[in-house]
Structures are given as C-alpha cells and as structure tokens.
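Hey team,

Filing this mostly as a record. A colleague (T.K.) asked me to run one chain through the structure pipeline before their review meeting, and I want the input and output archived in the tracker in case anyone asks later how it was produced. No errors, nothing strange. Just documentation.

Input sequence:
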Amino acid sequence: MSMSDKALLKRDAKRNIGEELLQSVREMKAGKKGAILQVEAPLIVEARHRTGLSQSRFADLLGVSVRTLQDWEQGRREPSGAAQSLLKIAMTHPKILREISRNTSL
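Output structure:
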C-alpha cells in the first residue's frame, strides 16, 4: 500500500537522513550486509548475453527493432514463432549466432 504525499512528508520530516547515511556507511565498513535480492533476468536477456551481442546487433540478427527486443527483455511482450526458435538456438549454441553475426553485414 503506498503512502500519500502528505503522509510521506510527515514521515520524512522526522528523519535525519544524514545520520541514517552515516549509520549505513558504518555498517558497510563493519561488514554487515542488508537484504540480498536475487533478480532473475528473462531468458531472452540470458540468450543475448550468451551470444555477447549488443541489443542493437542482437535485434538486427533476429530481424526485429531494438524497441521490440527491449519489450521482450522487460517482459512487456513475448517473442513469437521464428524468434522463439532463434532464441532457443542462442541459449544452447550461442557460438552459432556469433558466427552468423560476424559473417553477415546486417
């Protein structure tokens, strides 16, 4: 549940941000760790990383716009048919896509 602007201002008026930051630095120096969050990247991001290609080059290779690739990577859209097949190849045989990328003038 999000707080209203008024509630946020009231809460923040009571805070000493400088002291909170200083305390955080002390904890870091002491080796104390906060919560460690694990974020799982979508498989398409992993596929692109395995090939070692930039978003632009990977999008060209797949025959889509960079914007479409970004939509896939951020979970706003799902790749269809042929793109899914190419992504499977990228996951299992990234060298093949790197070779295709080097040998074509996209």
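Quick notes for T.K.: DSSP finds seven helices and no strands in the chain. Helices lie at 5-13, 17-29, 43-51, 55-62, 66-73, 81-92, 94-103.
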